[in-house]
Please model this.
Amino acid sequence: MTDYLLLRLYGPLASWGEIAVGESRHSAVQPSRSALLGLLAAALGIERSDDAAQQALTQGYRFGIKLECPGMPLRDYHTVQSGVPARKTHFRSRRQELSADKVGTLLSTREYRCDSLALVAVEALPEAPYSLEQLAEALQRPHFPLYLGRKSCPLALPLAPRRASAATLREVLDETPQGSLLALLERQPEQRWPSPADRRAFRLGQARYYWEDGMNAGMEASFDSWRHDQPLSRRRWQFAPRREWVALQGRDPA
Model:
């Protein structure tokens, strides 16, 4: 049996950053490893500049994901003013930058997912700096605000962290009881997910499962892919590639 910490991620907007090239900022459909580690770091109060604590967090946990609803894509067009520094000068604040004699405009597009819903299972490795109980307590009383990939993407529902044990990742994601999301509006937390109203509201269809190397998935992978979301340095925004396994709902457990 393996112990997991289950988290439910839902918001009107989410952005799971992919490789950023030029003015385009793409979003994956499923949460990235860097975003999930950032969520834990924010809850624990770990600063981006604390390289040692960030690295310990990166090496201490693995994530499995059940994507209940991928949501709808949204592309947003951004314009950002940027000051042009004079020769041999450096801006020390945003105010100083905008007061420069010459100001240019940066154009960019950013992608989001609307109404996506994911169930995340956190697995602690032997070298994990915090226990699952400590993570759950921090997520219930976070030190910094929590968001879904970007600061403009707040949570719409509490994460409701809970401990669960199971023989495989699929077992814990599929068989751990979850409450209906829409029933929360009617103060009926005992109603089970997914209710008929949940199915209509979230347009639930085929679920997708994602997991990392070394996890006991309990299912056959449909395919694998490489994601550039393994944090190397938060301060320098450096990330390394990693392999992620993917399974589609309907395949028999291995």
Remarks:
- Helices lie at 33-44, 51-60, 94-98, 132-140, 169-175, 196-202.
